[in-house]
Amino acid sequence: VSRFLRRSGFEVSVNQPENALWEVHGLSSATQVEAPEQAPAAAPAADTESRKTLVLITTDTLGRGDDELGARLMENFLASLPELGASLWRIVLLNGGVKLAATEGKCLDTLKQLESNGVSILVCGTCLNFFNLLEAKQVGETTNMMDVVTSLSLADKVIRP
What we know:
With 161 residues, this protein is of the alpha/beta class. 29% of the residues lie in helices and 20% in strands.
């Protein structure tokens, strides 16, 4: 809950009083979050700079048929993502896609560069554990399904290769 609130622009305080119930407080200024009734129904098409594009990657290769070709296509796909410009907000790696965050090569190098340029990268912790890659992860933030679902909900556009 705290992480979600922070990502949504809130200042967060958490405490656990003696009665063992947790208290989570999120404080926002009026300039950070618009009231729902004031939010526009849809962002104008010309306002691409403020739109949030999320890329959901679920495998370490792109397409079906040949894994070697699929690996090359994934390298090219990731290398092309900077062309999205400022709208590229977040990359989410699930299932076999988490291997990209833990395997040396061009894909990992590209992900590191994207992260250093301000792109948020979320890497599924359950998936990392499944593939025994938790310690090998070199890029991104280890996360959970709640963050993934929230990210999908907040995105203006989702790309799933």
